[in-house]
Amino acid sequence: MSGRNIAELRAALELTGWRLATTQRLAQVGDWTLDRDSGRMTWSRELFRMLERPQHLGEPDINEVLSYYTPSSLDRTRDLFWHAIDTGDRCSLEQEVLLPSGKQRHHFTVIEPHKDASGRVVRLYGTVQDITTRKRLEAERIRQLARVAELSRHMIEIEERERRQLASALHDRASPNLAALRILFANLADSLPTQVRAACGTLLEDVDALLADTTAGIREICTDLRPATLDYAGLEPALREYVEAFRKRTRLDVVFTTAGAEAPGLAAEAQTLLFRLVKEALTNCAKHACAGQVRIGLEREPTRTRLSIVDDGVGFELALLGQPGSTPGLGLITMRERVELAGGQFVLMTKPGEGTAIQVSIPHLTC
After folding, report:
1. Which distant-in-sequence residues (6+ apart) come within 8 Å of 165 by Cβ?
2. Can you tell me the distance from the alpha carbon of 191 to that of 194, in angstroms, rounded to the nearest whole number?
3. How far apart are CA 358 and CA 310, in angstroms?
4. Cα 93 from Cα 136, distance rounded (Å)
């Protein structure tokens, strides 16, 4: 081979080495090899930089390498090395690294075993990527999600408190006043002369009917806002009361069943949530499902309460949920979000022409 060819090969190798080093620096990825029998390691230039080790010190031995890792990462790293040697499997893990400067970094290591002709692992090749920035962003994202979840829970609590206050005001003030007005009006009508009462009979009946309808309307509004039964009797009586009123109002066949003993661990907020779920689901059934029957099941277990709502209506395309113009829409999405905020599970199953089934599981309070 001529000197020119050798020079060209040397230049090509230098260019390749420069490109590899540059790529590793930009990607924050270093690499190493470990000879099984001699224990000798080789490091790339980027790995020296990542671990703050001067190149003139040369590569450390395996024991010195392990000293870079935090106690929580040390055993996992050592176990991974031996697993790769014993099995020949490619493996990976995340590690916490303590640098000589005192900084803590997060690395992601991938180990690729190399075998000889007999199948024995004789060398390990590894890549190390600095993922500290990614881990920091992930932690910040988790903090932000937790903050949003906390704000959402707070908004729900405020909404329920305002509902309770408004329902209480209507129940404690408006309803008694209307009842008193009906009594006063009846007494006034009875005190009228016979001829006047006969002449105004229709008008008097209309006023009495209007007062009765207003009283019933306020009672219905109070139930929708916050049924008093939910506060003083609990979830099951409140559901039975609402289902019965809904059945009479819509003529829809609703079957409500329960199983299991009373669950003292079900928080008041969770009881409110389950009541709202039933209310939203029944509203959807009346508006959109064209169902003949709705089956509601409340099952209490030692650690959680399960709610199922199944109708035999027209169903819908699940992929279209939340899309503009789709029915039902945001109500079901809100239901799922509220269940998940409470630490529960929400499962929705539906197909066009095959009805809709909702299954909810809410954990109980732990002591």
Report:
1. none
2. 9
3. 6
4. 17
